[in-house]
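> example.struct
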């Protein structure tokens, strides 16, 4: 007792008053009625939905170009060509012709194709003569050309990179400089082309990468545990990515309110969105200060929270215990904030400025009694019901990104983020197309986008049967036996292409309609068809 009294005397007056105030609070049960909070008037700055002309018709490619416009791709080509020129100056040997805008779009098409048709390595997409060969990539671009563009893909100008690298170790160094030109373009497009509906969700998204950049993070609770962490704002109704930011790790500039607070505040742009929005978040972000400041901005918020957060009721009486029955509810209201605890398989803590504590909602759970499973109904707090309903927007967005992701192994960290930008553009384009027409699955949308990017027909022409490739005389046989061996002789296309020789032959391929040598010592017919 003496030790406790001594420590009590040493406690600061403000902290002691706060502790006593929290101890005076008592958790209420679902039988006690909570106040219904004032409903915020929903005043978006634009009509929610796609911000496009209703009279125009939009294809998958035209929607994709709203994110990767010809101007943005032209800048990408310019910086990529500049990177190659810099590499050549350093002594690298390339067979290179400047990449054009149309060729870059075809390159995007191949990346998306590889996301739909998974093979173990890039080389396998151009490998011929095997059971798992795919003919499409070779008709769009050679393997070496594809790899050359991949190696040199650059979103910023190399000369500007050099200037930024000189600042490394100082506060002026920009960790995201290599991705920022394209990132700013994509973020602006996401916010401009579509205006979200009322319910939004904030969460983290991981882009897989183990490069030692100083920005990669480890999150054991995520399916992708190592990589770049993105903070994402999505529309809960359809998973559209409204805005995002890339976390730079220990290089983050603190403002004094903490990273979770700053993240949500930066994503909730009142000038862009308007007022009256409801935003849902997990326990990484939720704090009484954040929710109070959001309500001052005319934004409602709801999210799971951690009990040790400052100004949360930590020592209140009548709290839930480990032995509390399933479905038990406790709540405390503190002005606009309502703190709710609910016992499911474990204790769930939620804080909200939108909902009352309990409105009579129920949930069904499978319960095992006497070796048999049965459905049983339990009461559920209103904030928990809404949280489960609207936090799914981020999950929907992540599922779309993973179905046919453009991500694959690469040596450059910034190329991983570039591939994620392609994923965002494709999934957001599909979401808008679904809002406008709703007549395509995601797979059908991606197939059409690939054919439009690559400039090909969606139907692949039937491959000729190998039985058609047989040697036949190049001309009608002469009745004069002295001229049989010489009539109809033409230059062999393989000898000319492979060796630069003008060898003449009377034989040609019936299917290919080209002349080819067919001799014991020179079988151009066989060599030619190996490459088909």
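> example.seq
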């Amino acid at each position: 007792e003496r030790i406790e009294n001594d420590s009590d005397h040493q406690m600061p007056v403000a902290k002691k008053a706060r502790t006593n105030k929290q101890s005076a609070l008592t958790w209420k049960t679902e039988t006690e009625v909570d106040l219904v909070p004032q409903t915020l008037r929903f005043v978006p700055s634009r009509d929610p939905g796609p911000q496009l002309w209703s009279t125009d018709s939009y294809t998958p490619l035209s929607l994709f170009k709203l994110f990767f416009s010809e101007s943005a791709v032209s800048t990408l080509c310019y910086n990529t060509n500049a990177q190659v020129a810099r590499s050549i100056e350093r002594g690298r040997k390339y067979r290179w012709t400047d990449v054009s805008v149309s060729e870059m779009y075809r390159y995007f098409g191949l990346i998306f194709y590889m996301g739909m048709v998974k093979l173990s390595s890039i080389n396998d997409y151009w490998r011929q003569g095997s059971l798992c060969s795919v003919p499409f990539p070779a008709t769009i671009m050679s393997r070496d050309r594809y790899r050359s563009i991949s190696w040199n893909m650059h979103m910023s100008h190399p000369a500007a990179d050099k200037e930024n690298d000189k600042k490394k170790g100082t506060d002026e160094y920009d960790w995201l400089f290599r991705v920022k030109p394209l990132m700013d373009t994509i973020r602006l497009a996401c916010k401009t082309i579509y205006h979200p509906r009322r319910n939004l969700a904030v969460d983290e998204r991981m882009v897989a990468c183990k490069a030692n950049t100083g920005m990669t993070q480890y999150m054991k609770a995520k399916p992708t545990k190592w990589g770049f962490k993105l903070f994402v704002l999505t529309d809960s109704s359809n998973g559209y990515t409204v805005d995002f930011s890339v976390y730079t790790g220990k290089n983050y500039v603190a403002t004094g309110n903490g990273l979770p607070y700053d993240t949500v505040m930066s994503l909730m742009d009142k000038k862009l969105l308007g007022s009256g929005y409801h935003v849902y978040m997990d326990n990484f972000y939720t704090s009484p200060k954040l929710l109070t400041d959001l309500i001052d901005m005319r934004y409602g918020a709801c999210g799971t929270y951690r009990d040790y957060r400052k100004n949360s009721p930590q020592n209140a009486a009548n709290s839930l215990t480990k032995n509390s029955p399933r479905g038990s509810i406790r709540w405390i209201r503190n002005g606009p904030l309502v703190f709710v605890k609910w016992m499911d398989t474990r204790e769930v803590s939620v804080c909200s400025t939108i909902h009352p504590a309990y409105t009579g909602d129920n949930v069904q759970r499978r319960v095992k009694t006497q070796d048999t499973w049965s459905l049983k109904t339990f009461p559920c707090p209103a904030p928990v019901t809404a949280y489960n309903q609207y936090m799914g927007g981020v999950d929907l967005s992540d599922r779309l990104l993973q179905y046919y992701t453009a991500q694959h192994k690469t040596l450059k960290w910034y190329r991983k983020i570039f591939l994620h930008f392609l994923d965002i553009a494709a999934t957001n384009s599909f979401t808008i197309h679904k809002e406008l027409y709703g007549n395509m699955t995601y797979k059908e949308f991606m197939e059409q986008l690939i054919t439009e990017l690559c400039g090909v027909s969606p139907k692949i022409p039937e491959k000729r049967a190998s039985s058609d490739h047989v040697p036949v005389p190049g001309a009608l046989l002469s009745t004069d036996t002295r001229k049989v061996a010489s009539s109809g002789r033409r230059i062999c296309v393989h000898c000319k292409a492979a060796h630069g020789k003008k060898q003449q032959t009377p034989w040609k391929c019936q299917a290919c309609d080209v002349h080819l040598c067919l001799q014991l010592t020179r079988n151009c017919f066989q060599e030619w068809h190996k490459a088909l």
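> remarks
DSSP finds 18 helices and 19 strands in the chain.
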